[in-house]
Amino acid sequence: MKKLFLTFIAASTLLAACQSNSGGSSADSAATAKEDSIAAAKVLENPVDSANAPVLKFAVESYNFGKVDAGKKVEYEYEFTNTGKSPLVIQNATASCGCTVPAWPKKPILPGEGGKIKVSFDSANKSGMQDKLITITGNTIPAQTVVHLVGEVTGDASAPAAPGAPAPGTDHGDHKH
Predict the structure, then answer these.
(1) In sequence order, what are the beta bridge partners of 136?
(2) What ranges does the record give for the region Disordered, renumbered to this chain (predicted)?
């Protein structure tokens, strides 16, 4: 348990430092990341019973981005509120595909307060209907909550052709098959 706890602190510090914005000094960012990690670790070392557990409540659990051309990026912020009775700590957020990257708050979210999980989906090399699952792991009961990013990628999923180049699959007779 001690190793898990120390690993979480180290990972949180590194992730928070990587996620910090470019404003302010890196020393300030590192100090803030360390403070957030310590606060999160303190919350996690005191498990809560189900009656007092934090509750992760999303305003939207499934976002439909509609139709986008292949190669476009889609970004969405899932807004949430901690409707439980104790501080919420999001330990991790993962997506079902490497093309989808979530970013989440690293500091504890107090009861009644909210936050945002920003998700970026890169539609390059994708086509057709998409349903990306984002799994959020925290000190909630149950520990994991899933939200969806859905929509349709249209057009050619491969890299766009250079201006003036023939469309993919066009045969101009100047090469062998």
Answers:
(1) 93, 145
(2) 157-177
What does each C-alpha distance from 127 to 131, 152, 168 come to in angstroms? 12, 7, 15
Q: Is the pTM of this model over 0.85?
A: no
Q: What is the CATH number of domain 48-157?
A: 2.60.40.10
- CA-to-CA distance for 74 and 121, rounded, in angstroms? 5
Looking only at the bridges linking them, the beta strands covering 62-69 and 144-154 are parallel
Question: pLDDT tens per residue, the chain (177 residues)?
Answer: 333 333 333 334 333 333 333 344 445 555 555 555 554 554 445 566 789 999 999 999 999 999 999 999 999 999 999 999 999 999 999 999 999 999 999 999 999 999 999 999 999 999 999 999 999 999 999 999 999 999 999 987 665 544 444 444 333 344 333
Residue given tokens 């899932």 in the structure block? 78
